Amino acid sequence: MRSNPNRVPGAIAAVFAFLLALVPGIAGAQNAQATDQLPVVKPEPTGVIHEPRFVLRAIDFASRTTGDGTNRKNGPHLVFSSGLTGAGWISGGGGYRHWLGQDHAIFESTAAYSWRSYKVADARFEYLKFAGGRVTAGTEIRWQDLTQVNYFGEGNHSLEADRAEYRLTSTNVLGHASYRPSEWLAVDASIGWLRPTLKGPGGTFDRGFPPVLEVFPHDPAFALARQPDFIHDQIAVTGDTRDFRSHPAHGGVYHVALSAFHDKDTSVFTTHRFDAEAAQFMSLTRRAVLALHAAVVTSGTATGHIVPLYLMPMLGGHHSLRAYSDQRFHDRNTLVISVEQRFALLTHMDAIAFYDAGSVAARARDLNLDLTDYGFALSMHSRGATFARVDMAHGREGWKLSFRMSDPFHLSKLRQPTPNFPALR
Amino acid sequence: MTTFLAGRAFALTVALAGCAKSVHVTLPADGALPALLWQAPGGPGTRDLFNGPWSPDHAPDPSARYRLIERKHTGVNPGMTVRDPGGREWSVKTAAPETSDMPEGPIEVVVSRVLSGLGYLQPPVYFLRTFQLETTWGVRAEAGGRFRLKDKSLKDRGTWPLGANPFVGTKPHSALLVIFMLLGSSDMKVSNNTLYEHRAATGNDVWYVVRDLGTALGSTARLSPRRGDVAALAANRFIVDVRNGFVVFDYHGWHQELVRGRITPEDVGWACELVAGLSAAEWQDAFRAGGYEPGLASRYIDIIQSRIALGRQVAATGHVPASVRR
Question: Cβ–Cβ of A133/B72 closer than 8 Å?
């Protein structure tokens, strides 16, 4: 018996009520725009330790070469992240961007290749000036090849020893529209066509884990010779009041989405999904920022139908339970909360302590906070962008060290007009 | 502006106090419009380094509401094109709030004022600390920056290289390079220099303008120069040696070929005499135009004055003091 995906249990609602109670930013954002108060660019908070000059020069260099995340520059640009969890510790590629007709439209294409041969290619066109700029519409085509996606089976108690891998290639074509009643709030709708392909693991720096079909021979997705095509649609509301997306000191981001993947072959894999996510950032002192994050995903099907493994929400890795492997836990429903205390060690280096908790479950009402971890991190950043971060986390499966070139709560996927596929976190 | 251009000539012969050498500015051979890089500046009292070489009605109104036309999509610093209530368009270079860099805008205005005060042609640029920006989402106070008026009398005709132009070999051209060294500038790439067709009632001509001047007043480097950093400017030695009759500068930015083996002590002397013509009040005015507080401006000015003194010493003796060479 499967649960109704739209039923959010009381514990989850309480988590979001807690986060929303911390949100002065939503009401305050519009007020700030209406006021005549002149903005003051505050100096960066200095750390407790005097920053060596070479650190400042390194940050300057990183700022100028890796970009500021504002996507404002025309022409070719470098890409330093595939944006895909599990792609490996380093990714690189290039892109081309061109703003057209005094910012009336944008064309952009990117391609990236990662340590584990993950590949992403994407092209999009968006017209930005309907209704005086409040309504935008666009189209996008995205191809990606994830060569070594982890799968351990379903549930909180899946065994680490059952680790298997598969390769997921997909082509996604979509159209989308967005209405922005205010600068910080967007209502998005999208519809698209998705063709996934499953294979055995491949790519470079293969970790040698067996294919999913060997460990889970009865997996319903792998039982098919060919995966079905999907028509997907989504409606989402996103509010974003963060001062900076890649290194926020205050504000928050709040996102709710309803989406569906319609199996065009047999309907057996047709899946509905509800996503809710929020992150709040608060400057406690000049040097200390508290970051809170919570996310819940529920998915469901008609009775007797199946959520294929590549449409299941997942937990584990840099953006959720950090002491666990990427995609460590799969099931129809996931819940994760994180608390981070960030402290300015140098002007451009934070020392961080964090705690994560969450779970996966077949029924949304069974979600809890039983899976936990804690850890420490160091991050290098400019005023508004994180360039590098090293995390050391400990959970029930031991210690895990990870290196990333982004903030774990950047939540860039919330800005994408398409449902998150696969539901990597 | 009329006064400023009154000394315009197609072949300039300039005699500065303490420098009796004649300077001839080469013209394009194809008979096109006359080309101008520099004009002999007036003395103290004849130039306004706060408002600049253009009349005050070319300045932006700090209380006006500016309509966003488009964001800037090139360069390191962000910016935008805005339109004021009078229909005039402005190119605004703002700070990049997400970075740790000093914004280019204030520096660019200061250096522009200094160059125009010394006789180099400059477009109308100004600094506003904040301004009212009107977008789709309403009107808000926006952190300001450098405002450059898109004036109808100046038509952009592309770029020009510092290393290949009709003025190479002239004292004003060499002095321009020395002034870059003096002010700790790392910005000598072609895209920073603009050819303007200048249209005036008295006739048209072509201005060779060094326009993007914001990477200055700090350390020089290829990858990560620190602009607007008074400590970094102080740490830079300006001149480190004289070898084979040419001055060796403490310059680490791109296009070192422009100054390596090309600038003589005499060139440095000519440039330093030119810069020394600016009064203390004019220096303060130039920094005030870029929004600098007097105290910080004085720190920069003191450093620049000591570098001018070093340049004069090198010009007079032909060598660099051992204490500087270290």
Answer: no
According to DSSP, residue B79 is labeled: E
CB contact, 8 Å: B69 with chain A? yes
Of A250, A281, A285, A347, residue with least CA distance to A45: A347
User: What is the Cα–Cα distance from B168 to B37, expressed in whole angstroms?
Assistant: 11
CB A366 within 8 A of CB A383: no
Q: pLDDT tens-digit profile of A230-269?
A: 999 999 999 999 998 889 999 999 999 999 999 999 999 9
- The pair of three-digit structure tokens given for residue B262, joined into one six-digit string: 């090309």
- The tens digit of pLDDT for each residue in B284-325 reads 999 999 999 999 999 999 999 999 999 999 999 999 998 877
Question: Considering CB atoms only, which of B97, B130, B136 is closest to A38?
Answer: B130
**Which are the contacts of B301, defined by CB distance < 8 A and separation ≥ 6?**
B280, B283, B284, B287
Record the tokens describing residue B90, joined without a space: 């402005």
E strand residue ranges, chain B: 35-36, 65-71, 79-83, 89-94, 125-135, 138-149, 154-159, 193-198, 205-210, 239-243, 246-249
Rounded to a whole number of angstroms, the distance between the first and last alpha carbons of chain A is: 26
Contacts of B88 (CB under 8 A, 6+ apart): B149, B150
Nearest CB to A34 within list B99, B101, B138: B138
**A247 part of contact set with chain B, CB < 8 Å:** yes
Nearest to A39 among B76, B136, B142 (CB): B142
* Residue count (chain A): 425
HEC states along B155-189?
EEEEECCCCCCCCCCCHHHHHHHHHHHHCCCCCCC
Question: Hey, is A220 helix, strand or coil?
Answer: coil
Q: Do the Cβ atoms of A290 and A339 come closer than 8 Å? A: yes
Closest residue in B to A135 (Cα) is: B136
Give the distance from CA A2 to its chain's centroid: 26
Q: Nearest CA of chain A to the CA of B76: how many Å?
A: 7
